[in-house]
Amino acid sequence: MSFMDAREAGSKPGSGGAASQQNEAIDRRERLRRLALETIDLSKDPYFMRNHLGQYECRLCLTLHNNEGNYLAHTQGKRHQQNLAKRAAREAAEKPALPQPNRRATTRQTVKIGRPGYKVTKQYDPETMQRSLLFQIDYPEIEEGTKPRHRFMSAYEQRKEAQDKKYQFLLFATDPYEVIAFKIPNSEVDRSDRLFSYWDQDSKVYSLQLPFKPEPEKIAAQQAAAGAGALPPGIPPPPNFGLGPPPLPPQAPAPPPQFNPNFRPPPPAPMGQAPPPPQFMQQR
């Protein structure tokens, strides 16, 4: 290249000609190779291998390279990066889901002072034929800033007695009292506005009203029996709210007395003697 050609290409006087795109690519790869050799340890690369011919091989892409710089330039290329992403996605899909470690939450070590007092009241609504339970738990020594809690527990969660699917348990808990449980029927709970709880901070009483949904079969049987004048077996009578003793069931009328035409009253006994015993009619 002449001096005039170099001036026309834009080079400065006293320097070489302008580098072509090929020369720029070579220079860029050389700079990347030197930088990679300073920052990357090839002994820790799992895909770097040197074969018996003295060449360097990429076991991921199955390519051959003449020197380490060429291999490092390949690792920065698009093909090698795509193969790394595909391999990571395949390993993530084939890797089985490991169970999560069982991390238990730290519990407070509180000294329990015993069981609280309680009162349970059975309630009955004659209009809706709905039964409910009212629990009142006394917590006079409850810790400041705490509120009692309750939850339902299945019969299969406890280990104190035999499991019975006809019953469930209602638990009440707060510090520093022990947890108490009530065994209640395993009926469907009415979770409407009839189910409510209230904590009275003045009297330290926790109240919970637990209504049960009425069962249609039992209601139909109860109504049919009430029309006939008797309740079917297995259904208790409704409670009496101060209306006096419950009426007695109807009884069969007593048979009329039988008349004996041959009966004659005995003569009166003389003075000082006991009267003869009465004569009873004999059944034939």
Polypeptide structure, described:
The chain has 284 residues and is of the alpha+beta class. The chain contains five helices and ten strands, in the order ααβββααβββββββα. It has helices at residues 3-9, 21-39, 68-75, 78-94, 216-228; strands spanning 48-50, 56-58, 63-65, 117-125, 130-138, 149-154, 167-173, 180-185, 196-200, 205-211. The strands form three sheets. A four-stranded antiparallel β-sheet has the order 4-5-10-9, with no helix packed on it. A hairpin with a 4-residue loop joins strand 4 and strand 5. Helix 2 packs across helix 3 (68-75). The termini are far apart.
Q: What structural class do you assign from the helix and strand content?
A: alpha+beta
Low-pLDDT segments, ≥5 res: none
Order of helices and strands: HHEEEHHEEEEEEEH
Largest sheet: 4 strands, antiparallel
Radius of gyration: 49 Å
Q: What would the principal axes of the Cα set say about the shape?
A: rod-shaped
N- to C-terminal distance? 157 Å
Mean pLDDT: 79
Beta strand %: 15-25%
Q: What topology, given as strand order, has the largest sheet? A: 4-5-10-9
Brief summary:
With 284 residues, the chain is of the alpha+beta class. Helices cover 23% and strands 20% of the residues. The protein has a four-stranded antiparallel beta sheet with strand order 4-5-10-9, with no helix packed on it.
